[in-house]
Amino acid sequence: MVVTSACASDREGDAVVSAGAPGAAAAPVQASDATFGTLESPCGAGDASGATDQGVSDTEIRIGYGDDRGYAKSPGLNKEMGDAVSAMIDWCNEQGGINGRRIVGTLFDSAMTQANAVMQNACASEFMLVGHGFAMDQTSEQTRVACNLAAVPAFTVSPDAANGPMTYQGVPFPVDYANGSQWFQMAEMYPELVNEFDVVDSTMPTIITANTKARSIAAAAGFNLKNCGVTLNYDGESSYVPFAEKIKQCGAKGLWTSRSPVPAEFNFVKALDQVGVDPILLGEATWYANAVPAWNGETGLLDNMHAGMTFQMLENADVVPAVKKYTELVAEAGGKTALLGMQATSSFLLWATAAKECGSDLTRQCMIDELSQIHEWDGGGLHAVTDPGNNMPATCGLVVSLKGAEYSQAFPAEAAEFKCDDRYLVATDASTWGTELGPDRISTKYLNPNVIRPNA
Predict the structure, then answer these.
(1) Most exposed of 69, 109, 369, 448 (fewest Cβ within 10 Å)?
(2) In angstroms, rounded to a whole number, what is the distance separating the alpha carbons of residues 169 and 81?
(3) Contacts by 410-417 with C-beta closer than 8 Å and gap 24+?
(4) Measured CA distances, 257 to 230, 233, 268, 312 (Å)
């Protein structure tokens, strides 16, 4: 998933132990608090023991997590993910950890360009990576696989990471199948635009891959894209007006972007307004982010913005217990709440659920075995049901829209409800994958004989 957001931190990519530091164990919480939405908490006291793997001792489990918060061009990028995992570690430790072992989390800031340096550090110290996401994960995947660092990321971006070995996600985003609900649902909402839409391209390799997939999904949903030929430099343009003029001349009345809501993207929207173009906009779920309503509240230029999601809206906290729990825990810790934070939370809970089952035998092999057997997962109600064990996305979704500084659910009409349809699961053409998959749907690029595979 191509992702991005906004806030601040240091930018060296160094690790900082930021949550669950060793100390006196807190008294376990009452049973009434030991749930996360509809999910019974996987955390709690116990007598697990043994130094069973790197980062595991009688008393501790070391996990790495992190984001790109130190990226200079978008300070605080995806900070909500690190904030969420930090809060979840504290929540889990307050219950006694995992079978009695405390979780010690190491926060890694890859600052966009330091993903491989971060991975090298994690390889040397962590049991697993959990709830993380690095926008340039294509630079670190070879290192991760080589050191057998199993991972439960919040998101992946590059094809080799999306279908990587030893990787399971709460919300899978594989290269060979996609949840195309946003395109199908937009076709229901705006049937007059199925021949008037186009995709805005980018120079960033991961976005090029994402757009290739988006085009195949749009076609499956009945869209005949206009192919206006607009490609924006990911690092920004001196002027976006020529690109906006090209959109105007092409006659596109709807635009898809796999880019994220960074300042450069806002400048492109400004240019569209300057040349008199007011298209319906559709983007990844990352457009459901704090920076977007803040900017639109001042400009009103994104009132046509839509984002497809498989997650519940934060605005539904009053009716969705899992969303309420997430927002409460992160707010209590002074963190930032946003969609990617819920995504990181889901992956943390997925990891913790598998870790609980491993008991004293907490090894990477056991984790791979357990994670591969989890086939129905919704993070306690945070999102539509996925199949992490088979790396398969949901067949449900909803669309949110923006008006001023407020998001609302645009489709389906009933708040907190998803629409599900088997057609939403789109098998993408192999030419769009960006990597070669083996018969087990695992990327073959960095495979080696020592890769940990699920035991039959």
Answers:
(1) 448
(2) 14
(3) 410/189, 410/306, 411/185, 411/188, 411/189, 415/313, 415/315, 415/316, 415/319, 416/312, 416/313, 416/316, 416/319, 416/320
(4) 11, 13, 11, 21
User: What are the Cα distances from residue 260, in Å, to 137, 213, 256?
Assistant: 16, 16, 11
Buried b (16+ CB within 10 A) or exposed e, 282-299: bbbbbbbbbbbbebbeee
Give the model confidence (pLDDT) of 166-219 as tens digits: 999 999 999 999 999 999 999 999 999 999 999 999 998 878 878 988 998 999
* Residue 222 bridge partners (DSSP): none
Separation CA 299–CA 403 (nearest Å): 11
For residue 409, what are the β-bridge partners?
400
Task: Give the tens place of pLDDT for each residue, 415-428.
Answer: 999 999 999 999 99
* DSSP secondary structure letters along 62-85: EEEEEEBTT-TTSTTBTHHHHHHH
pTM: 0.86
Helix (H), strand (E) at residue 291: helix 291-299
Q: Is the peptide bond before 293 cis (omega within 30 degrees of 0)?
A: no
> CA–CA distance from 214 to each of 110, 158, 261, 282, 343 (Å)?
27, 14, 18, 11, 21
pLDDT per residue over 363-401, tens digit each? Answer: 999 999 999 999 999 999 999 999 999 999 999 999 999
Which residues does 359 contact at the CB level (< 8 Å), separation at least 6?
46, 48, 99
Give the C-alpha separation, 428 to 214, whole Å: 9
Going by the DSSP 8-state scheme, the letter that residue 245 receives in this structure is H
C-alpha triplet 101, 103, 107: angle, nearest 5°: 165
The structure tokens listed for 269 are 């929207």
